[in-house]
Amino acid sequence: MVGGSRPDVAVVGGGPIGLAVAWRCAARGLRVSLYDATPGSGASDVAAGMLAPVAESYFGERVLTGLLVESAGRWPGFAAELAEYTGLDLGYRTEGTLTVALTSDDLAEAERLWTYQRNLGLPVTPLRPAELRDREPLLTTRLRGGALAPGDHQVDPRRLVAALRVAVERAGVTLVSRPVRQLAELDAAVTVVAAGCGTAALTGLPVRPVKGQILRLRAPRGATPGFRHVIRGHADGRHVYLVPRTDGEVVVGATVEERADLDVTAGAVLDLLRSATDVIPDLAEYELVEARSGLRPGTPDNVPLLGPLPGRPEVVVATGHFRHGIVLTPLTADLVADLLATGVPDPALAPLSPARFGAPVPLSPAWFGAPVPPGRPGRPGAVGGAMPAARPAGAGSVGGSAPGGEPGPGGESGPGGESGSGVGAVGGSGPGGESGSGVGAVGGPVPGGESGPDDGTSRVGRTRWS
After folding, report:
1. pTM
2. Torsion-angle region of 94 (φ positive above 0: left; ψ -120 to 50: alpha; else: beta)
3. Phi-psi region of 322 (alpha: psi -120 to 50; beta: other; left: phi over 0)
4. Cβ neighbours around 126 below 10 Å, total
5. Residue 226 domain-assigned?
6. Strand duo 208-218 + 9-12: pairing
7. pLDDT class for 41, splitting at 50, 70, 90?
8. What CATH number corresponds to the domain at position 136?
9. How many structural domains is the chain composed of?
10. Angstrom distance (rounded) from CA 229 to CA 364
11. Kind and range of the H or E element at 153?
């Protein structure tokens, strides 16, 4: 597909997605240049790193569930290969994820979702309060119930980025430390845009910023956290996740706000800490070491944009991973690298094509500095034109059409995935997302109902999974 005297591939964006694409392309014999002023300073630097396709499987997201399951299945091999190639520890952990509910209403909401997930064939096992506390004694005594997702894992995104940077350098990728503000600046046979929220200004595609605020705590006296599993809590109508690291850190997240500012607010910190300590009271004694915000790159249907830009086959887009950038890194890198190396698109790319939203609409840079216009939650209009409408209920999924179904709680996970926010320049900060292992594969239909798009009205303290 590529060749000549110029570089074969120019990758715009140095987050996990862009770095992994560059690494996989170089491994296939392509000459690659990667452009980013500050690689790894965007979404991944704020990310929690949950790899959780079971806990992240929600009503109305059948296409996305298929992607999460397929990519999660690639994570063990991807992590082992990257660790061996670089000699670096990624912080990849496989203890699994516990979801817990504190009230009767919390439990009813959670059980409805677990039933849906089990109907998809995903491994989730309901547990009684005593069984939960047997696994994690620090959990509150207020528990009404919970569930175990043993295949929902985690990785440390900051370590992941560090390893990927070493990998691309060893593979011969040329790193260019500058932002890209127009694709015309680049001289390569093919350009891959993996610039997170910056993709909108570069391509005109409907990628919107979704703000997330996240905290990092540290266990007292240099100890490791007193729990091993990732904990996802339904806490009096609020949702929180707790991700323990072996170095003593605990990531607490996250808000989901249809805004584009990066302010860290007192209300968000208060609500996240309240929910965290409701689930594990001992966290009140941990040190608060970091409070950050960033921007997830969302699309109108919450499904990534992967494939050629309409009308410009020399530009391939790999963005819009929203809250799932970390878990989708292996699959995205393989799909894009195979496309560039062979010229043959994988059938899994069909429902992810940027062409599903029509011709790109040029966006004004001013759009990235303002909150969602009134009356348009979830899909802010671009300056000069509205974003394409999201997919209606009952839209097709990977491998076939989806019957209509019931709407359910939206699912957002911690910041992570793609680098870049702001006015077309790669390197802004912003949370993206995570998910992990499971069963099934892209290409086969996932049973279950489909609903319309999330209305995007999440509030701090009343967020869905984030």
Report:
1. 0.79
2. alpha
3. left
4. 16
5. yes
6. unpaired
7. confident
8. 3.50.50.60
9. 1
10. 43
11. strand 153-154
